[in-house]
TrEMBL record:
<feature type="domain" description="Fatty acyl-CoA reductase C-terminal">
    <location>
        <begin position="405"/>
        <end position="486"/>
    </location>
</feature>
<dbReference type="GO" id="GO:0010345">
    <property type="term" value="P:suberin biosynthetic process"/>
</dbReference>
<keyword id="KW-0443">Lipid metabolism</keyword>
<feature type="domain" description="Thioester reductase (TE)">
    <location>
        <begin position="18"/>
        <end position="319"/>
    </location>
</feature>
<dbReference type="GO" id="GO:0080019">
    <property type="term" value="F:alcohol-forming very long-chain fatty acyl-CoA reductase activity"/>
</dbReference>
<keyword id="KW-0444">Lipid biosynthesis</keyword>
<dbReference type="InterPro" id="IPR036291">
    <property type="entry name" value="NAD(P)-bd_dom_sf"/>
</dbReference>
<dbReference type="GO" id="GO:0035336">
    <property type="term" value="P:long-chain fatty-acyl-CoA metabolic process"/>
</dbReference>
<dbReference type="InterPro" id="IPR026055">
    <property type="entry name" value="FAR"/>
</dbReference>
<protein>
    <recommendedName>
        <fullName>Fatty acyl-CoA reductase</fullName>
        <ecNumber>1.2.1.84</ecNumber>
    </recommendedName>
</protein>
<dbReference type="InterPro" id="IPR013120">
    <property type="entry name" value="FAR_NAD-bd"/>
</dbReference>
<keyword id="KW-0560">Oxidoreductase</keyword>
<comment type="function">
    <text>Catalyzes the reduction of fatty acyl-CoA to fatty alcohols.</text>
</comment>
<comment type="similarity">
    <text>Belongs to the fatty acyl-CoA reductase family.</text>
</comment>
<dbReference type="Pfam" id="PF07993">
    <property type="entry name" value="NAD_binding_4"/>
</dbReference>
<dbReference type="InterPro" id="IPR033640">
    <property type="entry name" value="FAR_C"/>
</dbReference>
<dbReference type="GO" id="GO:0102965">
    <property type="term" value="F:alcohol-forming long-chain fatty acyl-CoA reductase activity"/>
</dbReference>
């Protein structure tokens, strides 16, 4: 790979289309581009809204209104609004529709003439999303972005953001290789994207014919997604449909320059534009918040296994480096943005870092008193976990239920509180069990080659080297405080 001397210069005078613009990662990418390359020609930001007025409101509240843009605002001062107005073009659309749902014909034609780079980060990341919704965004959406990209006469690269967990529950070293159309994780045959889309249509038609209530339709479509995912070897609807989206892109790209980026669990920023920025609740953050709110009293998992997390700014830096390195390359390339090979960290470090943080910064209970910081029990086998849950929750709940029946619901508040904690733990275990016992590690040889190709003077400005992360310091002093700050907003 040739040396990358100036990543920022690769974006000078370029027009970039970004989908999923209100998402966590897309915002990091947009902010970084605007901060390091003010001479970018245009950022077309696609937002899922219905009209021009709504798109502006959403952009101001969900994108530039965020603290993430504080450094950029300080840099431009009073000229910030005019800078944004010059560089950013807001597009009302929806990738689940043809032509990305953009209704203005003139705008579509202008974009086909002007766009140099497309970054597709739009996705539904809900593990148990409705199957029709997940197929519409993660699969059909990817196809619609590809179709749009093929009409962009100047296009240098389509960068598609996927997830490393399209690997399902594989163990061992997982390579940076593409999926072939119809490939499954359990060697069950018959996976066909068009057939899955027809199945969705048929099920919806049946539900509408039977005139089922909306909540029952929602439950049925969620169950269908989970059933189809597990039938072919994936643990949930999200990673299954992201894998299908990759297959569609690889199969139909017809020589279009394509890079698929597969990040692992994305966490708060390590350095840029400042440490600890994040929004939303993702993966390990649910455990941190659950403990902070006194909802998490135990967990199921193996503390010695690697948790593959990567700071969000490193992912954004990798996105820019990949786009700079692969412009006009008529190939499909896969990149894992991961840490499990280059700088592995296990779940025990998260537990220790949490204990360290909350010891220094005690939690405050509802009565205003400081709560004692303690280590929650983590069970590495399902039998011990269920024994604990029976003793800690099920038996007391049954006793409270009987007592409430006899004493006119005298202890109903206590029962409800204990019941909420029980449901919270069981929900988390159901959600994260495939990852708490995940025994794979993600090879990042392609990304390592790219790191080596980045010029020395660029490596600090566009850092995506996991070996530079001090996990204990990052988790205790950057990430956990960032999660709690986000929780309090």
């Amino acid at each position: 790979m040739e040396e990358l001397n100036s990543i920022a210069d690769s974006f000078k005078n370029k027009s970039i289309l970004v989908t999923g613009s209100t998402g966590f990662l897309a915002k990091l990418f947009v902010e970084k581009v605007l901060r390091v390359q003010p001479e970018v020609k245009k950022l077309y930001l696609l937002l899922r809204v219905t009209d021009a007025k709504t798109v502006t409101q959403r952009f101001r509240s969900e994108v530039i209104g965020k603290e993430l843009f504080r450094v950029l605002k300080e840099k431009h001062g009073k000229g910030f609004d005019s800078f944004i107005a010059e560089k950013v073009s807001l597009i009302a659309g929806d990738i689940s529709c043809v032509n990305l749902g953009i209704e203005e014909t003139n705008l579509v034609e202008t974009m086909w003439k002007e766009v140099d780079i497309i970054v597709n980060s739009a996705a539904t990341t809900n593990f148990y999303e409705r199957y029709d919704v997940a197929m519409g965004i993660n699969v059909l959406g990817a196809k619609h972005v590809l179709d749009f990209a093929k009409k962009c006469v100047k296009l240098e690269i389509l960068l598609h953001v996927s997830t490393a967990y399209v690997a399902g529950e594989k163990a061992g070293v997982i390579l940076e290789k593409p999926y072939q159309m119809g490939e499954t994780l359990n060697e069950v045959s018959g996976l066909d994207v068009d057939a899955e889309l027809r199945l969705v249509e048929e099920r919806l038609k049946e539900l509408h014919t039977d005139d089922v209530e909306p909540h029952l339709e929602r439950t049925s479509m969620k169950q269908l997604g989970l059933q189809r995912a597990r039938h072919f070897g994936w643990p949930n609807t999200y990673v299954f449909t992201k894998a299908l989206g990759e297959m569609v892109l690889g199969h139909h790209r017809a020589g279009l320059p394509l890079v698929i980026l597969r990040p692992t669990m994305i966490t708060s920023t390590l350095q840029e534009p400042f440490p600890g920025w994040m929004e939303g609740t993702r993966t390990i953050d649910t455990l941190i918040i659950g403990y902070a709110k006194e909802q998490l009293t135990c967990f199921l998992g193996d503390l010695e296994l690697i948790m593959d997390i990567v700071p969000g700014d490193m992912v954004a830096n990798a996105m820019m480096a990949v786009a700079a390195a692969h412009g006009n390359h008529q190939t499909e390339t896969i990149y894992h943005v991961s840490t499990s090979v280059s700088n592995p960290v296990n779940y025990a470090v998260l537990l220790d870092s949490g204990f360290q943080y909350f010891t220094k910064n005690p939690r405050v209970g509802k009565d205003g008193r400081h709560l004692e910081t303690h280590r929650i029990p983590v069970y590495s086998d399902i039998t011990s976990f269920h024994r604990y849950m029976i003793l800690r929750y099920r038996l007391p709940l049954e006793a409270l239920r009987v007592t409430n029946a006899a004493l006119c619901r005298l202890f109903q508040g206590t029962y409800d509180d204990l019941s909420r904690k029980y449901k919270f733990v069981m929900h988390l275990v159901d959600l994260y069990k495939p990852y708490a016992f995940f025994k794979g590690c993600f090879d990042d040889l392609n990304l390592e080659r790219l790191r080596r190709a980045v010029a020395e003077e660029e490596k600090a400005k566009f850092c995506f080297d996991p070996k530079r992360i001090d996990w204990e310091d990052y988790l205790a002093n950057v990430h956990i405080p960032g999660v709690l700050k986000c929780m309090r907003k």
